[in-house]
Amino acid sequence: MPYRLRALIAFVFATCGVSCSARAADSAPSAAYPVKTVRIVVPFPAGGSTDLVARNLAQRLNERWGQPVVVENRAGVAGIAGSEYVAKAAPDGYTLLVGSVSTHSVAVSLYSKLPYDPLKDFANLTELVSIPNAMVVHPSLPAHSVKELIALAKARPGAINYASNGTGTSNHLATELFKARAGINLFHVPYKGSGPALIDLLGGHVSMMLDVVMTSLPHVKSGRLRGLATTGLKRSAVLPELPTVAESGLPGFDALVWLGFHAPAATPPELVAKLNADAVAVLTAPKMRQVLQEQGWDVVANSPAQFNEHIRSEIVKWRKVVEVSGAKVE
């Protein structure tokens, strides 16, 4: 074989080797991922419901991946600060977010200058879990059902007050949705978080509150608060004795708190697919499902497309409530 032909063949094989290696390297991130510590940002303080779910998720992903998965709390501006941080992070799968209905649906209408777009600035991986609120009242309020509460509120317009975790929070807007559907007027008393609000409700300083079932459950069981209903379309597994608001005269009423798993928008599609598959696998494992259900959470574990559609529908839903309530945060 002539020397020049041998040289040309050698060059072609060498070039192919380089390009094949490059293509393999391009596809390597999802195949090898993760090769170092993964951070899951929680945009709320440690110890809250979002934080607890994130830590359960991190523990199981750590076991699945064989790499450290750490939770980092970046609280501030009702979850906006930590969410913005992840939206602007490198899209390499090593900085992820556990967001919520507040950060990815309500905030769009509540804040005039939101520093991120929940759909355009994130690869929304999967909805993790959802949980209803419990409609709870202080025992001194003479209402033992939703219908009795509505009748009492109509007889005393604006005289019954309710607590929330703060203006624009999910339980504030859920109560505003209830007010609008029931055609009643309740007086809003915002607090800085669920802890202070619940303390004042237990003390009788406010009359009612919509509070996630996991924190109101022990007080309903002890009789320190009276549970009237829960806010999902189906009864809560941990408070099955309570009817839903929808069963109690307001058909279709649905106000759930949900948490989602998110990555920066430019995360490669193959890595998005892996993160979704692994998150769904750990969420639906029997032990993990049991842990979450015991806390009142329902596992969702859907696809990125389904999650994006849910976020879109929730943005539309809560925009109407924000408009009716007049709630705004600058």
What is the number of independent domains? 2
Major sheet details:
10 strands, mixed
Spans where pLDDT lies below 50 across 5 or more residues: 7-28
Helix percent reads 40-55%
What is the CATH top level name of the largest domain? Alpha Beta
Q: Decide which structural class fits the backbone.
A: alpha/beta
Please report the number of helical segments: 11
Shape: globular
Q: Please tell me how large the radius of gyration is.
A: 24 Å
Q: Write out the CATH superfamily name of the largest domain.
A: Bordetella uptake gene, domain 1
Would you write up a description of this structure?
This protein is of the alpha/beta class and 330 residues long. The protein folds into two domains: 35-130 and 257-325, Bordetella uptake gene, domain 1 (D-Maltodextrin-Binding Protein, domain 2); 132-248, D-Maltodextrin-Binding Protein, domain 2 (3-Layer(aba) Sandwich), CATH 3.40.190.10. The chain has eleven helices and ten strands. The N and C termini lie far apart (78 Å).
Précis, in short:
By secondary structure, the chain is α/β, with parallel strands linked by helices. The chain has helices at residues 3-32, 49-65, 80-87, 101-110, 146-155, 170-182, 194-202, 213-222, 269-283, 286-294, 304-325, and strands at 38-42, 69-73, 95-100, 122-137, 161-164, 187-190, 208-212, 226-230, 256-264, 298-299.
